[in-house]
Design goal:
Distance between the termini: 51 Å
Order of helices and strands: HHHHHHHHEHEHHEHEHEEHHHEHEEEEEE
Domain RCK N-terminal: 169-305
Radius of gyration: 37 Å
Number of domains: 3
Structural class: alpha/beta
Biased composition (Acidic residues): 29-43
Helix content: 40-55%
Subcellular location: Membrane
Number of strands: 13
Signal peptide: 1-27
Strand order of the largest sheet: 3-2-1-4-5-6
Keywords: Ion channel, Ion transport, Membrane, Potassium, Potassium channel, Potassium transport, Signal, Transmembrane, Transmembrane helix, Transport
Length: 472
């Protein structure tokens, strides 16, 4: 953006210098004309004829009188070069043009077919205009495009999310000290993977300017209509007001990964969280920090993700249960399950297909997967549902728990837990039950205590249907 602004200021400087050159050139011409009027009529006609022969012999000789600023600004100020050129060429003709007439002639010629009230009457002027029109057809569109792009970028930097859109549309604000393409792309892909968030808009609020990669990302059609960038700081109430923080559905504060000192990065994130809390106390905050000891400072946030705490816990569990880190990583990242399908290795295809598994939940009484296991133990329901439907029941939240444990999810509670109608089941599958279609080849008169027969289950996600095994 600084380069584009400097280029714009350079063009304006050259334009101003060219105008001054033309004005002083015209003043010199007026002084010369006054001196020529004092001379005799015969000498005046002789000088005009002599000048005509010289211009016919070498048309470029008159243009050499233009200043070096005009020649250096030909690419940046082509219309002003046209004005200067046609004015100097016509000095050798029978009809002289002043600055206003030259400007009027060039503007009318470029914008229309020309009115014919001012026309060049010598062939050097006519040839000059033909060449300049061809040059203008090449140079002007590029210059106008750059000028429009610069103006739009400056509008975005100093713009705001309109209050009308904030009232009629839903948006979230993402605050970060720096904007990295990988971090923003991961956030956007995971955020819009949820079907209920497709109508939300994302406002990026950062004091840093966009780099080339981020500009290219925001110009992609899928993000251009959803993502809005505003340059500003969370520490300023004016910038928070421009982002309509008070009307936002949520605020995401991302930690700066470019900082070598993780403590300093946490300090920036905490200060921004405090500023948002002071400006909009009722807005849910999702804060990302690095150090576990800093969680205390943002305990008011809706959710706090401590990266170091999560990473070390994952590595520790991976030592006791090999593959745990891979399983959790695949569950956290959204995948369609189509990766590696072109590989010649069978395990590549199986790994890619099973990477599309995610965690879903459903009430037991409303489920066709687990509804038949009401009154059975958790282990019985988990084993037979995986054998029958290819899903893995990993946890349950009982409907009746003490007040202190109301939001507790029991992971693999074992055979002691008996499934009830109001229990919430958490299971891993390629897609949630509501989006799946299955046909079970099972006799309706078969006893529930007998082992279920194999069924055929097919899931559909993004118009992709396949047999959906689960990698355990």
């Amino acid at each position: 953006m600084q380069k584009s602004q400097s280029a714009l200021s350079q063009q304006l400087t050259i334009l101003s210098a060219t105008l001054l050159c033309l004005v002083f050139t015209r003043l010199d011409e007026e002084e010369e004309e006054e001196e020529e009027e004092e001379e005799e009529e015969e000498e005046k006609e002789g000088k005009e004829q002599e000048g005509l022969h010289e211009s016919a012999a070498w048309p470029g000789g008159l243009l050499f009188q233009c200043s070096s600023v005009e020649w250096s600004g030909m690419n940046n100020n082509t219309p002003m070069f046209h004005v200067c050129g046609i004015q100097h060429f016509q000095r050798a003709g029978h009809r002289h043009l002043n600055l206003f007439q030259s400007t009027y002639y060039v503007v009318v010629t470029f914008s229309t077919v020309g009115y014919g009230d001012f026309v060049p009457d010598i062939w050097p002027s006519q040839l000059f205009m033909v060449i300049m029109i061809c040059v203008a057809l090449i140079v002007l569109p590029t210059q106008f495009e750059q000028l429009a792009f610069t103006w739009m970028e400056r509008q975005k930097l100093g713009g705001s999310y309109s209050s009308h859109r904030a009232q009629s549309e839903k948006h979230v604000v993402v605050c970060s000290t720096t904007l990295h393409a990988d971090t923003i792309m991961d956030f956007l892909n995971e955020f819009y993977a949820h079907p209920l968030l497709q109508d939300y808009y994302v406002v990026l609020l950062s004091p840093m300017e966009l780099d080339t990669t981020m500009r290219m990302i925001l110009q992609v059609p899928i993000w251009a209509q959803r993502v809005i960038y505003i340059q500003g700081s969370c520490l300023k109430d004016g910038d928070l007001a421009r982002a309509r923080m008070a009307e936002a559905e949520a605020c995401f504060i991302l930690a700066a990964r470019s900082y070598a000192d993780k403590t300093a990065a946490d300090e920036h994130a905490i200060l921004r969280s405090w500023a948002v809390k002071d400006f909009a106390p009722n807005i849910p905050q999702y804060v990302q920090i690095f150090r576990p000891e800093n969680k205390l400072h943002v305990k008011f946030a809706e959710h706090v993700v401590c990266e170091d705490e999560f990473k070390y816990a994952l590595l520790a569990n991976n030592c006791t249960c090999p593959g745990a880190s891979t399983l959790v990583t695949l569950l956290l990242h959204t995948s369609r399950g189509q990766e590696g399908q072109q590989s010649a290795e069978e395990w590549h295809r199986l790994y890619g297909k099973c990477s599309g598994n995610e965690i879903y939940h459903i009430v037991l009484g409303d489920s066709r997967f687990f509804g038949e296991y009401e009154g059975k133990s958790f282990t019985y329901a988990s084993f037979h549902s995986h054998r029958k439907y290819g899903v893995a029941l990993v946890g349950v939240r009982p409907a009746e728990l003490p007040e202190f444990y109301e939001e507790t999810i029991l992971l693999n509670p074992g055979p002691r837990h008996i499934m009830k109608k109001d229990d919430t089941c958490y299971y891993m599958s390629i897609t949630k039950e509501e989006n799946s279609a299955f046909v079970v080849n099972q006799n309706q008169n078969q006893s529930p205590d007998q082992p279920p027969k194999e069924g055929r289950w097919c899931c559909r996600r993004n118009s992709f249907a396949s047999r959906c095994p689960l990698l355990l």
